[in-house]
Design goal:
Blueprint: E1 2-3, H1 9-21, E2 25-29, H2 35-46, E3 61-64, E4 78-79, H3 84-95, E5 100-104, H4 115-124, E6 127-130, E7 139-142, E8 150-153, H5 159-171, E9 176-180, H6 187-195, E10 199-204, E11 207-212, E12 223-225, H7 230-241, E13 249-255, H8 262-269, E14 273-278, E15 288-294, E16 302-303, H9 315-324, E17 327-331, H10 344-354, E18 358-362, E19 365-370, E20 378-380, H11 386-399, E21 403-405, H12 418-427
Parallel strand pairs: 1-13, 2-12, 4-5, 8-9, 16-17, 20-21
Antiparallel strand pairs: 2-3, 5-7, 6-7, 9-11, 10-11, 13-15, 14-15, 17-19, 18-19
The structure holds shikimate-3-phosphate (S3P).
Shikimate-3-phosphate binds next to helix 1 and helix 5.
Length: 429
């Protein structure tokens, strides 16, 4: 069976924001039409950008950008709901804009740390006022049209932090330089380069360094086709590798940016039968291709700090696969998982335990002792987290046993149509 998954969430979020700041009309197809992009699009509209509704079928969307100085003060708070990327990247763009705006979110987003972004942006000259708990949304950003330059050593490998700083450098016309301990996804760098804001990146002793040396006064509009999200494809890959989706599944037109593909390496180490066909047309800034997967027995593996940034969102799935694989699967160096839509280490540990899996919670990861072909059943919680909900929906479908996830509505933030696709795929059995 050949399937497609919704557009990449990280790329869709960036495309909306970059198009909003461009001079001229951007053409973007394949955008994710999900809860998170709806939140970002809604916030941009409130900031005066005419963003039409995102088409549900991936057809082309035209966005007339307002330019780097064109965002307008909103009349009410911007509600980013569940979207950490939307909130943090907009904080960056707003830091270099001459206006004040309050950002808020749902119960999950209100629990997530914001100082990782507000601290560097404050040094550049923006001011932040936390209206509730310190370091948490709701936060009012008081931006400034010209910001000071910044050289920032980020303690975490986070593309959201890096992108917020680069966006502040762009709107605030400031030299910005970020060093992260390991390279995180580089979509912002590629997109900036495509619209005329030159970013250079290179390895240093301290990690990975990214520089926006000479921010331009205007950026060109985007002409971009968003590929399928490899982080969504990962759920289909896991389902098929576990033998719950027939003899062979091909996922077409998936983003294959090397800063995102470590889950494929993990699958191969676990003994999965996976093939990648690169189909990147010349000139495309983001690599794309098809991924073919067939069922196979799985063995345990280890994932450590070096690999974590390249599969951060797939780690709940690695734990779920670990429960079905032969041996002890170890995830370490992944303390960032505690700062996601939920504390994903605690969420995975408690859910796996509820299903009778032998699991150990570490400060920075998990150890899962898997037993192939074991019946797993019970009730688990989504913890307001789309990826936790989907990981256990896949496990339930794959083991063929009753796993009840308490809330599947959260899946809509990144994977509209998940339920329908799962039903289609599992009918293939
Ligand atoms: C994202 C970066 C990652 C990832 C998130 C999307 C992005 O977060 O977990 O789902 O689009 O930049 P961090 O940058 O906090 O690691």
């Amino acid at each position: 069976m050949r399937v497609r998954v919704p557009g990449d969430k990280s790329l869709s979020q960036r495309a909306l924001i970059v198009a909003a700041l461009a001079d001229g009309t951007s053409r973007i197809s394949g955008l994710l039409c999900g809860g998170d992009t709806a939140s970002t699009a809604g916030a941009l509209r409130a900031l005066g950008v005419p963003v039409p509704p995102i088409p549900a079928d991936g057809s082309e969307l035209l966005i007339s950008g307002v330019g780097l100085d064109g965002l307008r003060a909103p009349t009410g708070a911007l509600d980013l709901r569940n979207s950490g990327t939307g909130a943090r990247l907009l904080m960056g763009a707003l830091a270099g804009s001459d206006l004040s705006a309050t950002l808020d979110g749902d119960v999950s987003l209100r629990a997530r740390p914001m100082a990782r972004v507000t601290r560097p942006l404050s040094i550049m000259g923006a001011r932040f006022e936390a209206l509730g708990q310190p370091d948490r949304l709701p936060i009012t950003v008081h931006g400034r049209s010209r910001l000071a330059s910044l050289e920032w050593d980020s303690p975490v490998a986070s593309a959201q932090v890096k992108s917020a700083i680069l966006l502040a450098g762009l709107t605030g016309r400031a030299f910005t330089c970020v060093t992260e301990p390991r390279e995180s996804r580089d979509h912002t760098e590629r997109m900036f380069n495509a619209v005329g804001a030159s970013v250079i990146s290179y390895a240093t002793d301290g990690g990975w360094r990214v520089e926006l040396r000479d921010p331009p006064d205007r950026i060109r509009p985007l002409d971009f086709a968003v590929p399928g999200d490899i982080s969504s494809a990962a759920f289909v890959l896991a389902l098929a590798a576990l033998g719950a989706a027939g003899d062979e599944v091909t996922i077409e037109h998936v983003g294959l940016n090397p800063t995102r593909t470590a889950f494929l390496d993990v699958l191969l180490r676990m003994g999965a039968d996976v093939e990648v066909h690169d189909r990147t047309p010349a000139g495309l800034t983001e690599p794309v291709g098809d991924i073919v997967v067939r069922p196979s027995g799985l063995r345990a593996t280890s994932v450590g700090a070096d690999e974590v940034p390249r599969l951060i969102d797939e780690l709940p799935l690695v734990a779920v696969l670990g429960a079905c694989a032969d041996g002890e699967t170890r995830i370490t160096g992944a303390d960032e998982l505690r700062a996601k839509e939920s504390d994903r280490i605690a969420a995975m540990a408690s859910n796996l335990l509820a299903l009778g899996v032998d699991v150990e919670e570490l400060p920075d990861g998990l150890i899962v002792r898997g037993v192939p072909d074991r019946a797993l059943m019970g009730e688990v919680r989504a913890w307001h987290d789309h990826r936790i909900a989907m990981a256990f929906a896949v496990l339930g479908a794959a083991t063929g046993h009753a796993i009840q996830v308490d809330d599947l509505t959260v899946i809509g933030v990144s994977f509209p149509g998940f339920d329908r696709l799962m039903k289609t795929l599992t009918k293939e059995r």
